[in-house]
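subagent[fold] <- orchestrator: predict structure for attached chain, return tokens only, no commentary.
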Amino acid sequence: MRSSATSSRRSGSRGTRSEPPVTGRCDPSVHVAEEVVEPAPVQALAALFDDGLPTPRRGDVLPPLWHWAALAAWPGSRATGPDGHAAVGGFLPDVGKPRRMFAGGSVRFDGVLVVGEPVRRETRVLSVTPKSGRQGDFVLVVVETVVQGQDGRPALVERQDLVYRDPATPGGTRIAPEPLLTAPALLEREGDWSWRFRTDATHLMRFSSATGNGHRIHYDWPYATGVEGYPGLVVHGPLMTLALAEVLRLESGGAPVRSLEHRNVRPLFCGRSAAVRGGPAGDRHELVLAGTDDAPHTTLTAVLGAG
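subagent[fold] -> orchestrator:
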């Protein structure tokens, strides 16, 4: 039900903007895919959250950010890299730094996606920029995705920020794997705009499956600790972001969302509890996923209203 092709057409040829500067090795072409908003991964995501909201069925509007599941696609086995992600050097550039992190991004909702309907997705690398921060040098890769609905008009425009870092030096304290650890639910309500977020290994496996995310840091404890240097299994950045978006949906009564800005500040590890807090802030809603030390892991800012 999916087909894809790579076009040499640049977005600048549409007369909307010029081609942005790109440093490093990358393919500036547009990757085009004709797809369907698949019901099965949508149902899998709804079962994972299990938060009492109706499961979106064929003909229903897709909730905000759920396209990360509905339009997920696995790379072929020969096109999979040693970390479990799609191998770099094709569409995504090989920047010489193997550790990848989903750092955040933004989504503008100009329309709606409907479960079961065909869509057209156009994806391109906007920029590849070397940077330096508190944890050393890294490369920021910015990817833009435009998804057109059945009417041919853009339903959403998304920017994703991907960070690539040098190989880790394993060491430090590790969190022992706890195969019997179970969390009763991803999200548990504690009060108005106050929720508890906690994962177990099964949650991470199910989210990886629903979203086509093969990154081994989320399910392979020896790899996560011994190769990438984390103290334990890492909770997906998109899962933390989606948890904030789901709390927004629960607390706002499913009000339409016009735009979202989200940022992953630091990793959260499997089994560690975090709190969701926030609410209306002027003309927007601001939510944060904070650890037991009250420092943020993920932030989300939303503007409500039809696109």
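orchestrator: received. Logging for downstream: The chain has one domain: 3-304. The two ends are 28 Å apart (CA to CA).
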